[in-house]
Write a structure and sequence with these properties.
mainly beta, Beta-galactosidase, Chain A, domain 5, eleven-stranded antiparallel sheet, ten-stranded antiparallel sheet, 2 helices
């Protein structure tokens, strides 16, 4: 695939990757960030902040939307290091595109996303890399966050149920934030899934999961976005040991995967990979049987 430079959302330079069905837009003037993902001619499944598009060079960090790369554990100003300037874009021999930001003045970490679009399938592979280019060791984890468009349904599959006799020990670990309330009607805690719906009328809630099922979904207006990632056995993870987090408030719903937590010595790198898939003509799902029929059956 040739590297196609396009204007998008007010930014003069962006990279467009497309096959016969889907496209994604990688910003060059800010980032690294994928600001759009969708079917050609269709809506953006990623959420964006319209008043922040087309701008750069701000004195404070801007969420903007789309998919970004952060450094965990979350802290200010650590995680909110500015990404409001041009990134270096390169195309690899295999057609993949890398978008890189030099080391930040706070963390000393350089951020790179490598994005590869399958030519004959609705599949994107995103490899996230943090490299310690500073002078001191840094305890950190790769954090890949995707802002989804409003009013969709986040889908978290749960482990297969077992009998008490066969499962004496726990098999799940959750982290719950101080503002999380499971009486909130956006949450549904079921037998096979936890779901979370974005509602522009409701404030923040968040959940972290030590996720071993390998995929997370988001269903909106007939489109299904699937994010796949692995949990490394016996590795340490941030926020009480979780490798997936979901957050929503009035403006967004985020699907966030994390790599292992470790010490990056100067010159060392850590990577974390996600695979994205996109489906259309998927009915809305009101219960777990419908999630099995319309979502899980496609995976």
């Amino acid at each position: 695939m040739a590297l196609e430079i396009v204007e998008h959302a007010g930014w003069p330079e962006n990279v467009r990757l497309a096959n016969e069905q889907i496209e994604l837009i990688i910003t060059k003037n800010v980032g690294p960030r994928v600001i759009r993902f969708g079917f050609i001619g269709g809506p953006n499944i990623f959420g964006t902040f319209e008043d922040q598009l087309g701008k750069s060079g701000e004195d404070e960090w801007m969420i903007r939307g789309g998919h970004r790369l952060w450094v965990a554990p979350e802290a200010k100003p650590w995680s909110y290091e500015l990404d409001n300037t041009d990134v270096q874009i390169e195309q690899q021999a295999d057609g993949a595109v890398t978008a890189g930001l030099p080391k930040g003045p706070i963390t000393g970490i350089a951020k790179t996303m490598q994005i590869a679009l399958a030519p004959d399938a609705n599949v994107v592979t995103v490899t996230h890399t943090l490299k310690n280019e500073g002078a001191k060791p840094v305890v950190s984890a790769v954090w890949a966050l995707t802002v989804m468009a409003k009013r969709g349904l986040g889908i978290i599959p749960l482990p297969i149920k077992q009998s008490h006799e066969n499962a004496l020990l726990h098999n799940q670990e959750w982290s719950i934030w101080a503002y999380t309330d499971f009486s909130d009607p956006r949450w549904t805690l079921g037998a096979r899934y936890v779901t979370l719906r974005q509602d522009p009328a409701r404030s923040a809630t968040k959940l972290g999961v030590a996720h071993r099922e390998g995929w997370i979904g988001y269903l909106l207006d007939g489109y299904l976005f699937v994010k796949r990632f692995e949990r490394v056995p016996d590795a340490r993870y941030p926020d009480g040991g979780v490798n997936f987090e979901t957050f929503t408030n009035e403006e967004i719903l985020e699907l966030e995967s994390l790599g292992p937590l470790g010490t990056l010595e100067p010159g060392q790198s850590a990577t974390h990979q996600e695979q994205w898939e996109l489906f259309k003509d998927v009915p809305d799902c009101a219960n777990e049987d419908e999630l099995d029929e319309h979502v899980r059956s496609r995976l």
